[in-house]
Design a protein that fits this description.
With about 180 residues, the protein is α+β, with helices and mostly antiparallel strands. The chain contains five helices and six strands. The protein has helices at about 30-40, 85-90, 125-135, 140, 155-160; strands spanning about 10-15, 30, 45-55, 60-70, 105, 120-125.
């Protein structure tokens, strides 16, 4: 008798119609309920399935492990300015010292000096560097960001996201995921 695996432990990888993940970070995953609903509504094709089955009195099917959308969804080219996307753009590291803990965001030109909250003026910074810089300009204190702030494309974020694979990757997903072996220097 096989080991019973709960459907809750069976996330479904969602691919676009071109067989690329909708997103790498966070990885585009659906719960088993979302996947089954999409299959029943004929919005996706099942590419691979788990051995785990779900059933009702009149229905039974294996939980999909990989699905592809039937209709191509054009990816956004300009990602939303969010804290998470900013950290992802900056590869989850302080742009002043390189640390990856205790991250905040810093206005390169401080708000008190007319700086705005935009992609081109905000960088990831650890709390100690943010406090040390305070409301000064980078050139005044000799703290230049390692990478000038810029408006990333969705492709920049996907590329950076591939450097941070999730803790769980099912074997049926591997042909559709492309993870960097090590972080770029």
């Amino acid at each position: 008798m096989g080991l019973h695996v709960s459907p809750e432990s069976c996330p479904t990888l969602v691919l676009n119609a071109d067989f690329r993940p909708l997103s790498y970070y966070p990885l585009s995953l659906w719960s088993w309920q979302e996947a089954i609903k999409a299959v029943c509504l004929e919005r996706v094709n099942v590419i691979s399935s788990y051995d785990t089955k779900v059933h009702s009195p009149s229905f039974e099917m294996n939980v999909p492990s990989v699905v592809a959308l039937r209709d191509y969804v054009k990816p956004q080219t300009n990602p939303a300015f969010t804290r998470f996307n900013l950290f992802l753009r900056d590869r989850f590291s302080c742009q002043y010292c390189g640390k990856s803990s205790d991250l905040t965001f810093d206005h390169v030109v401080p708000r008190s000096r007319g700086g705005r909250t935009t992609w081109e003026n905000v960088v990831a910074a650890c709390s100690p560097c943010n406090l040390a810089k305070a409301n000064r300009l980078p050139r005044e204190i000799g703290m230049l960001p390692r990478q000038p702030p810029y408006q990333p494309s969705i492709y920049d974020l996907h590329r950076n996201g591939r450097a941070f694979p999730p803790n769980y990757l099912h074997e049926s997903w591997m042909d559709y995921l492309y993870w960097d072996i090590e972080l770029e220097a």
